[in-house]
Amino acid sequence: MALNLRQRQIDCITRMLNLNQAVSTTTSTAKEEVYKILIYDHFCQDILSPLIHVKDLRKHGITLYFLLDKNRNPVPDVPAVYFLQPTPSNVRRIVEDASRALYDSFHLNFSSSISRPLLEDLATGTTNSDSIQRISKVHDQYLEFVTLEDNLFSLASKNCYVQLNDPSAGDKEIEEIIEKIVGGLFCVLATLAVVPIIRCPPGGPAEMVASLLSQRLQDHLLSKHNLFSEAGNVTSTYQRPILCMFDRNFELAAAIQHDFRYKPLVHDVLGMRLNRLNVRGEKGVMKSYDLDHSDPFWMSNGSLEFPEVAVEIETQLNKYKEAVAEVSRRTGGQEAEFDGTDLIGNTKHLMNAVNSLPELTERKQVIDKHTNIATVLLGEIKERSLDSYVKKENEMMARGGIDRGEILAVLKGKGTKIDKLRFSILFLISAQSIPASDVEAVETALAEAEVDTSAFQYVKKLKSLNASLASANSSSRSNIVDWAERLYGQSISAVTAGVKNLLSSDRQLALTRTVDALMEGKSNPEVDSYLTFDPRAPKSGSSSSQLRSGPFKEAIVFMIGGGNYVEFASLQELAQQHQPAKHIIYGTTEILSGGEFVQQLALLGQKMGLGGDPKTSQRLG
């Protein structure tokens, strides 16, 4: 049973758009067609955007669609489907809409479970305005996450890394963030209808989320009619997936490095968001492209290195030209002279040629799209010398360092301020020890390039702390921890959890290597210390390290504090390396480019008074 998160979420949304009625498996529509209006908030718009296009809305009877906070005119005699987060402001707006009788009936769908106080506010408000009869149904949809591909999702939780590592954050703020992450993951598991075995390194946000999620699932499973009851009835041969939990400090390098594969490059350099990309085409006109399942070239070649993609574009173009030439040959009278003896055969040729025209047109549009994207990418690569950054970063991480002359040459060469800052941070974490004079030389070069060094100083502090903890004896260690608690607030356990991975020099990502070991399920020094939570186990044994049932065929890997297409690509490669292929879903609190993550590091550096100001930080790019 392959876990296809994207299809599961589309199925839930389709049912919701059809007033939560059963949908035909052949037509994907309800038996009785009803014309409706769709109302959503900004968060739920982001959920819908990568999955549902305008033509899909029309297919499901949605004739109009609006944001909740826009001024809307009454549309009598038409039902409205609301898809919103369960927040006080959204509930107030629903009550206002109902009191104004904007629509005939209100079908309310919340992205996660609505709390009892908010449900009472909804009931009280509609009762007082004499509009409660307009509320047709209220549904908890458990869809509070954004699915970008079959195996890729995000909780769209912004600045999560900053919030979890903010030295001024108190217990309440940290608990709220952890609660929000757990709520999002619960929605993902409810949509997949699976109760996984959870593994995570001890300490830090990963353990906090894993522990609370396991408890939430355990409590929910006590209910007779729970969201996983269907999954519980499958045969005993079904193997549950493993959920591997990590936080961003487990491996900083993967969040910062440049990458030359097509998907990571498009996301990092061109700013793809929600599977949509805006780039300048010919004559400087902005063009908007969808990069999703509807694009076969993107799905087939997204994991290739950029030069290979350029070759593939040319190959596809040549194939297209050959197909066009074949159609022309069949319809343009270039075949042997027609003598009327094979009328049926010639008619079939002509019909086949005509029928192939829409498919050829579509192929040409895809080729033109990626030719344009590749052209813009190539311009950025040349202007910023990105190929050189990728090569030197890989060499630096593999060798465990780089000569002072080489890094100074990079910092004085091409590239944006963010490119140079990312390279400098990778230099900082590429080796166990770096001469202080080399670090000072890099800081001077960054200052000369007018780069805000807050992020660099923050990672320098992290590395210093890790080195101190690694070398400290038991008596002095407690003093360091006390100092670090004052310096980093709640984040000390997160900072120390990834000591060995901060300096990972293996070409394979530490995340990928660890997930492989966890899926294998055997004793392994790298993961033997990892905690295990089984929500289906008795409470007394829920965190026993003996609860292993590998090897696992399916895994959900979740990164707290920001993930990226680099890790996603690496995990998908791992899944395909196994025979038969394994299945790995990758999720994160938010998808970040290297530049966006460095901005969060800079913000933390500023909060700790480590140089730079917010104005400078905004000009990093």
How are the SSEs ordered, and which strands pair?
Layout: H1 5-17, E1 36-40, H2 42-48, H3 54-59, E2 62-67, E3 75-84, H4 88-99, E4 103-110, H5 116-128, E5 135-140, E6 146-149, E7 152-154, H6 160-165, H7 171-192, E8 197-200, H8 204-221, H9 229-232, E9 242-247, H10 253-256, H11 262-270, E10 276-280, E11 286-290, H12 296-301, H13 306-331, H14 343-384, H15 386-399, H16 404-411, H17 417-429, H18 436-448, H19 454-471, H20 474-488, H21 492-497, H22 499-502, H23 510-520, E12 531-533, E13 554-560, H24 565-577, E14 583-588, H25 594-607, H26 614-618
Helix pairs in contact: 4-5, 7-8, 11-14, 13-14, 15-17, 16-18, 17-19, 19-25, 23-24
Strands side by side in the biggest sheet: 6-7-14-13-9-8-12
Overall average pLDDT? 86
Number of strands: 14
**Molecular shape:** globular
- Counting copies of identical and different chains, the oligomeric state is single chain
Strand content: 5-15%
Query: How many helical stretches?
Result: 26
Task: Give the class from helix and strand content and strand pairing.
Answer: alpha/beta
Fraction of residues in H or I helices: 40-55%
State the end-to-end distance: 44 Å
Poorly predicted runs of 5 or more residues? 232-237, 333-341, 473-506, 541-546, 613-621
Radius of gyration: 27 Å
Q: Biggest β-sheet, characterized?
A: 7 strands, mixed
Can you characterise this structure?
The longest helix is centred in the middle third of the chain and has 42 residues, at 343-384. The chain has helices at 5-17, 42-48, 54-59, 88-99, 116-128, 160-165, 171-192, 204-221, 229-232, 253-256, 262-270, 296-301, 306-331, 343-384, 386-399, 404-411, 417-429, 436-448, 454-471, 474-488, 492-497, 499-502, 510-520, 565-577, 594-607, 614-618; strands spanning 36-40, 62-67, 75-84, 103-110, 135-140, 146-149, 152-154, 197-200, 242-247, 276-280, 286-290, 531-533, 554-560, 583-588. The two termini are 44 Å apart. It is an alpha/beta fold. Strands 6-7-14-13-9-8-12 form a seven-stranded mixed sheet, sandwiched between helices. It has a five-stranded parallel sheet with strand order 2-1-3-4-5. It has a two-stranded antiparallel sheet with strand order 10-11. The model is unreliable at 232-237, 333-341, 473-506, 541-546 and 613-621 (pLDDT under 50). It is 52% helix and 13% strand. Strand 4, helix 5 and strand 5 form a beta-alpha-beta unit.
